[in-house]
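task queued by scheduler; priority normal; single chain, no ligands, no partner chains; default sampling; output format set to structure tokens
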Amino acid sequence: MRKGDVKRKTKETDISLFLDLDDGSLISIDTGIGFFDHMLNSFAVHSGCGLTVTCKGDLQVDGHHTVEDIGIALGQALSQALGDKAGIARFGQSFVPMDEALGFCALDVSGRPYLVFDAPMPQPVCGGYDTCLTAEFMRALAVNAGLTLHLRCEYGDNAHHITEALFKALARALRQAVAVTGGGVLSAKGVL
């Protein structure tokens, strides 16, 4: 039962998020930011995870609090779902092409949060989504899930394609990393 359920309410956002690592049949995303909904939906589909997200955020300010806080909630849900991380493959990596863009992700479900993000965005906005928020989301996810997360855009001219390639690469790498491959924790220390 690898599931995580997070409710997060602040003065800036009210989030309900449910993650199921083993049953991707339920996907429902409503953040108030259409492009971000599209990215989270792509993440869910390509990771094979069930994901439901509802968020009421202070979008009259901008999308920053909504995007970052959903990253926090998703990271917490992933941490819940993985528990002591026994039996998982731990590492994952993926290249994903999206038209002219090529995104790369490598990650380690290490318990040591770290983000390396190398993906300049040629356009500052996709729909109502500020493209600089992709790094904020990834940082919040990495910190709260305990991921060592490396993301890079190899090349690309379109911020939509770059962002989507990164979300899909993250999804595919995560799918590898959380796959159940054995019984114990994959660490020389015996714990992650």
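post-processing summary
- The mean pLDDT is 96.
- Residues 3-177 form a domain with the Ribosomal Protein S5; domain 2 fold (CATH 3.30.230.40).
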